[in-house]
Amino acid sequence: MTSLDYDRAAALTDRLQSRLVDGIAGDEGVTRRAVLGGLGVAGGAALAGLGSAEDSPGVSGGHGDSTHGDFGTKGEYADLDFDPHGFLTTFNTGRDGQENVPQDVYRETVDGVERTVREFTLTAVDTTVAIAPGIEFPAWSYNGQVPGPTLRAVEGDLIRVEFENLGRHAHTIHPHLRNLAPRMDGIPQNGPGVLDTGESFTYEWIAQPAGVHLYHCHSLPLKEHIHRGLYGAMVVDPDPERVRERPEDYCGFHASQVTPELRAELVARAESRNHGSDANDDVQELVIVMNSFDTDFDGGNEVYAANTRAFAYGVGETNGKGEWEPGETVRPIQVDGGRPVRVYLVNATEFDLINSFHTHSQFFDYYDHGTTLLPTSKNVDTVMQCQAQRGVIELDYSTHDPGLYMFHAHQSEFAELGWMSFFEVV
Amino acid sequence: MSERNSYDGTNRAETTSTDGGTERDEPAASDGGAVVARERPLGLPRWVAAVLPVILLVVVLAAFFLANPFAALESGGEPLPDVTVSYASLPNDETIVLHVTNNGPSEVTVSQVLVGEAYWDFSVEGSGGDATLAPLETARIVIPYHWQPGWDVETALILSDGATVHHTIVAPQVSPGLSGSVLLTLAVVGVFVGVIPVVLGMLWFPFLQSMSDRALHAVLAFSAGILVFLAIDAGIEAVELTESIPGAFDGLILVVLGVVGSLLLVQSISAWRRGRAEAGDSRASSGLWVAYLVAVGIGLHNLAEGLAIGSSFALGRVSLGAFLVLGFMLHNVTEGPAVVAPVARGSRPALGHFVALGAIAGAPVILGGWIGSLAFSPTLGALFLAIGVGAILQVVFELRGLVGRQGRVGTALNLVTFLVGVVVMYVTDLFVAV
Fold first, then answer.
1. Segment A293-317, tens digit of pLDDT
2. A-chain residues within 8 Å CB-CB of B318?
3. What chain B residue is nearest to A414 in terms of C-alpha separation?
4. Which ipTM was obtained for this model?
5. CATH code, residues A72-76+282-425
6. How crowded is residue B24: how many other Cβ atoms within 10 Å of its Cβ?
7. What is the DSSP letter of A129?
8. Do domains A72-76+282-425 and A84-277 have the same CATH topology?
9. Would the CB atoms of B316 and A302 count as touching at under 8 Å?
């Protein structure tokens, strides 16, 4: 025992200790204290005479394969009526969009101003939506989908919505726009008020300001009408001509401060945002509405999601060891690393005060409400939004290696209840 | 038929006017008719009359299902799903197994599982390969989850309609599961907490024999106190267990049924024995019968005790320390004299009877331990406890009769020793809270 190296003895004792404690974990007959008590002796003895303990395989932490790396909903979605992958890139502009959203675009003089009119037919219907594999949620919806169809117009256009309520409750459409006509506000106290079953009304709103906006039902009880699914995104593209004329409206500078370079920059950014311009074609634009569902009436959500379906942009199958397979309905969002990515992010989460968007291995520029053409937060990897808050996120994966990049709510609870997604950069 | 009767009647009316003899025939004929009616109701054979209501019931039920006359009452509402997590077992620290029963009238599908408010992988076993449970069907939900000993795990099942079923596993510990060594361990435990103390208690027999009647009655009252305590204790436990019994089994009614049923069963055995004794069977009249009844009652109680130990063991919820075994021994040693006191008068029964009495009273702990660890369910546990209560109550009546035949039951000494019996059991029970 004279050659005993105390440091080595201590280290070996530690290893033996953890191995033994692991070994007896759950053995009711032996207390942890009793095991630990006998170990100092064992460590010394092992060093002095039984050197073989050093050669044995390393102590296993006891962590299994799938018990730590494989959370998420089980199974695939059987209901194929709604395609969350298609929803990401579907914009209804009046010219083109979804088949189930009757729409048109034409010029018309409204109140002495000739405008582009983008006309959509929205219908409130009761339906069920799949919010997790095997779980159906009885939803109230615009045109049978949650979130409702994404409407897209250009700043200054007239958005005309022929709304008919075929649901069993009274509904409205309230736009988060700078709307100058109280009767078009879509609330019970103005205009037609709530529309009972079978009633219809034509809402007309000027598309302003540029940005990403929300529309939703404003019937009471509000919590119920929103969380049951009556909401959707509206994208108002900036008009490059207007930006050239009034650049100070799109940045934090006074008109006297706007240099020709800044003006040109703002116009270029407006063109990138405007779906009618060629510069927009290069951008991969995605709509993500953060939402949630309370399935058991306790005022807390069982499912959080990006676009309604828990983990719809997850990986499908994984062994928790870095290998994965895309599923049929559950798979990452593929993006081309060579082109910019723009996310129109809207928060329609009910019951919780805030939701958030966090990217792994990536920092982005964020334009709160999308109403400015210079970022309101530069170089961040997490933004939070209260309900109805929204914004534009611009991501650049051009220097990233191809592969999976996670993004999710950084409320861990929301992430583990469904709002956890991946970009697959290719 | 009635026409023929009336024809007969008119015919007879004609004859009566001419012949007095036929007049005497009249009541005889109607008497005869009454006899026929008893043997052939409506002119049908007896077996038809017995089966007829059943056949009609089947016909009515068939008509009911075919015609659906209650269609107007259907509002389109569906019965609410009702799923119970009876208990959770933890075979290792990477796995959680939830044992679930569908109590509702319609089938339910477990679509997703949450662990700690996170969606988690799971598989459903024992429900025919799918995640759908028919009414009263049970299944195991196996979740690969690395839980930590002592840290509560909150689980929730989400059914296809979004309804949630929550179950919190408090201070999780690995369940030892099932193996030969576990069964052996439980048998050893059973011998120590069941058989040995009862047998030791029975060794008081020679001392009991030497007692005066007065003292022996006090001992019997003491035994009754022990039994009453056991009945109350087991009754409360059974009622507590009903809370985790799936609703469809109507736990409280089940407990009442167990108590009343076993009481009646043991009482009928006892009545049969009395009948034999009155018929001159000397063996049936001895105190030995009472001793056996006491042993059966205590045995049933110990079976329930074994169930509790076994299930706690299976759920990883027991630390069978020396102190607990000591407590059980103290607790059960008092059951020994209770068994043998009824035979303290008269000739000493053969030694074999003592062995049998000890085995009947004590060995069920082993059996109960095995059952509890193999297939514990709150339903089974409550039922066994209730059966024990009924049996014990009957035995208490029996003891009362035994004392009453030879002296007065309500003496001061008897009442005090009865109380002492209750108190002793209460105190020793404090040591054995499993």
1. 999 889 999 999 999 999 999 998 8
2. 28
3. B118
4. 0.74
5. 2.60.40.420
6. 9
7. E
8. yes
9. no
